[in-house]
Amino acid sequence: MRGAGGEVRPRERVSSILSRRGAVTGVEIAGTGDTLGTSFVLCGRDVAQIVGTLADRPRFERLFERLGEPRPRLLRYTLNLVLRSSGMPEGMGRHVVAIADPSARLEGENLLHLQASKPDAQERCVLSVSALLPRRRVEEESGYLEGTRERLRESLGALLPFLDSHLLRVDSPHDGRPMQDLEHDLEIAPKDPWLRGPHTLPVTHDFPVRGTLGLTAVPVKTPLARLLMVSHQSVPALGFEGDVLAAVSAARLVRKTDRQKEWMRRGLWTKVEI
């Protein structure tokens, strides 16, 4: 985040976004009480998190009345498996999308994304398995998240029939359980347990109203002038490419306000970028 008075460094956190007469004027740095004047504020966080830092929330409430407020729907769970490379099926691609039952909901163990690494010097590889878990089941069903490891391993049996005999370690940063060293029948406690657990599950939102071609959701331009959204909620249907598109759109909006550069383009230096 950069502004007229400087920039917010990565380890600094914004506690509030300051505004006046419907336009952003600066930000307040958490824990210091310092304020930083800004020309623009570009936010890469979810809109719900941004609204919590605003004093002028009614403007966003009118936006939500028109578009609807994003609702958390699915949580992305990742399971990391270390196994001997001989346990990987010959010819299996580096990326695999597996659907067990096309007629069922594409969530949980019914839809898996597998990403395999190249074997190391000891002929071991890492298989990362991702699944989208229903938020309600994670939050309301006792033991659902804790048992996800076993359910995913069971689902992998159709793709990797010799997985169990070659599996060395199993771990996930999301379920709060320790790493399982199956080779030595041990459980290894994490060094930084506060960086693990259900709070680390990335959220996938549902948007009541979609924009252009059903691809866009939260607009880059917000009800507060000079506050721009560049999060994954702007063009959620395109994933990483959508993030890039939102960032480029925000950059163009900022660039249009550079009067000096605009004058240079219209003046003598029409063929030179300064």
Gyration radius over CA: 24 Å
Instruction: Point out poorly predicted stretches.
Output: 1-5, 268-274
Q: On the 0-100 scale, what is the average pLDDT?
A: 85
Beta percentage is 25-35%
Question: What is the CATH topology classification name of the largest domain?
Answer: FAD/NAD(P)-binding domain
Q: Find the structural class using helix and strand composition.
A: alpha+beta
Total count of helical runs of at least 4 residues: 7
Described by strand count, sense and barrel closure, the largest sheet is: 8 strands, antiparallel
The level of helicity is 10-25%
CATH architecture of the largest domain: 3-Layer(bba) Sandwich
Order of helices and strands: EEEEEEHHEEEEHHHEEEEEHH
Q: Specify the overall morphology.
A: elongated
What is the name of the CATH class of the largest domain? Alpha Beta
